[in-house]
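Ticket closed. Logging final result for Isoquinoline 1-oxidoreductase.
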Amino acid sequence: MTRFTVNGQPIEYRLDPETPLLWALRDASNLTGTKYGCGTGQCGACTVHVDGRAVRSCQIPIRRLEGSFVTTIEALSPDRSHPIQQAWVAESVPQCGFCQPGMIMAAAALLEQSAAPTDAEIDAAITNICPCGTFPRVREAIRRAGRVRGGEETISAAPPPGIDPKDAARQVPALDPGASAKPDR
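Final structure:
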């Protein structure tokens, strides 16, 4: 058994001690915000914080985490009010979204170390792979979040905490049986 804290909750995993943290989080704790990408630590989709440091969770067996504190994207800010989350939306960073949780976690860890990181610091800290190529917006979002944290700027509102599932599907009006299915032109 391996014991450590995940998102502020003490957890005891009864898994093989060699189980990667990624799979303990996703499969045993149902924390699916941490994504599986490459499984080799290269892409960064699985980035979480361990004792405040950004780490690739696919590369750490849970046996090495005894007594540690792990934070996933789900607990970075439950209401999405963390400056990096706000800036991410304000700068229109997301495209497909798959790599975003890992990038956000890496960026949040960077901002804990440097309130106003340089481009070189950003490039060194954010080694996550984004196939959509959002890196210029990522840099701007990190700089903006640093300004927000420093009190130099505000972002008007946090992004909404989610979409109610019943609102996620569009309601398509029923066609009048006598009406044409062709749109009016």
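The first strand starts at residue 2 and ends at 6. No further action required.
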